[in-house]
Amino acid sequence: MKVIQNLVPASKYNIKCPYPMTPEFIVVHNTANDASAANEVAYMIRNDNKVSFHYAIDDKEIVQGIPEVRNAWHAGDGANGQGNRKGIGIEICYSKSGGKRFEEAEKLAAKFTAYKLYEKGWGIDKVKKHQDFSGKYCPHRTLDMGWQRFLDMVQSELNALKGVDKVAEQNTPSSWAKEAWEWAIKEGITDGTNPKGAVTREQVVTMLYRFFQLLMKVLGK
């Protein structure tokens, strides 16, 4: 998944992310304004407020502002709070006005959240909301629309990622190679030991087509 990095300079770590962190969960926020992800991160870096987050996500982009190995000030639970010291803060953009842009930003945020869960081997229980740590009604628009609805979106994306794993387990490289080799023998490209002379252009085209068929089979198309 493509992530654009615009990381806070080390010279501002003392303000924005002073502590090393080993993340344990994800904390979801809504920005409560209508700026893009790039602008959210740029503003966060530019100011000297002790407010920060790891990722901002709009309807088109995911922008990272803080390394995941550093804490960020986003959960409102203090210098030693679990949210601030152990959570990856994700801001979903365009929540002030809502509408189509916010809905698309939320969909992309669900995909990214699922990707992070998959990457780290976490389950849906590792997805938290800002409200869990400070009581603030945030992510406000996501809560208005239904928190469980958002979790269901994330779970659906996570299930899809796990489904790719399942297909891969059932179609290991060795099984692909075996099938391709048996096909090559059948087509007369090899006798099972060595190639039979030069491979023609037509055989190359056929082999590429066969590879495409195998790829579609693996992807479940």
Report on this structure.
The protein has two domains: 4-166, Peptidoglycan recognition protein-like (Lysozyme-like), CATH 3.40.80; 171-218. It has nine helices and six strands. It is an alpha/beta fold. α4 (99-120) crosses α7 (147-170). The chain has helices at 13-16, 37-46, 82-86, 99-120, 131-134, 140-145, 147-170, 173-186, 201-218; strands at residues 4-5, 25-30, 55-57, 62-64, 87-92, 127-129. The protein has a six-stranded mixed beta sheet. Residues 194-198 have low confidence and may be disordered.
Write the layout of secondary structure elements.
Blueprint (H helix, E strand, L loop, with lengths): L3 E2 L7 H4 L8 E6 L6 H10 L8 E3 L4 E3 L17 H5 E6 L6 H22 L6 E3 L1 H4 L5 H6 L1 H24 L2 H14 L14 H18 L3
Parallel strand pairs: 1-4, 2-5, 2-6, 3-5
Antiparallel strand pairs: 3-4
Question: Top keywords for this entry?
Answer:
alpha/beta, 221 residues, 6 strands
In the CATH hierarchy, the third-tier topology of the largest domain is known as Lysozyme-like
* Amount of beta strand: 5-15%
What would you call the quaternary organization?
Answer: single chain
Q: What's the rounded overall pLDDT mean?
A: 87
Q: Tally of extended strands? A: 6
Largest sheet: 6 strands, mixed
Strand order of the largest sheet: 1-4-3-5-2-6
Query: Superfamily at the CATH H level of the largest domain?
Result: Peptidoglycan recognition protein-like
| Secondary-structure element pattern, one letter each | EHEHEEHEHEHHHHH
Low-confidence stretches: 194-198
Number of helices, counting only DSSP H or I runs of 4 residues or more: 9
User: Cα distance, first to last residue?
Assistant: 21 Å
Radius of gyration: 24 Å
Counting structural domains, the number is 2
